[in-house]
Amino acid sequence: QVQVVESGGGLVQAGGSLRLSCSASGSRFSIYAMGWYRQAPGKQRTLVATITIGGRTEYADSVKGRFTISRDNAKNMVYLQMNALKPEDTAVYYCNARVGGSHWGQGTQVTVSS
After folding, report:
1. pLDDT at 30
2. How is the chain classified by DSSP, letter by letter?
């Protein structure tokens, strides 16, 4: 059973920074891709950024140039450095790990005040 746990959310003023961390444990196989998604109240969950085991990254247009995803394959951890945060970045951020299926964490709240 793969377990995914996020940490690092919180409250920050617009223009500030936060760093999210996520660990994935319990897999006997290498995790092909890990990523971050977010869901604002009343909206669907959408992709923020993903990174493959080879280091290929993908970002939502709305976060390009502000957010950076990185990964430690040895530790099965993924990070999201969020800079120049905007109120519209407010959401619950979920970590995802793709290995033998798609596995989700419980989410961490990020709130950006104006």
Report:
1. 82
2. --EEEEE--EEEETT--EEEEEEEES-SS---EEEEEEE-TTS--EEEEEEETT--EEE-GGGTTTEEEEEETTTTEEEEEE-S--GGG-EEEEEEEESSSEEE---EEEEEE-
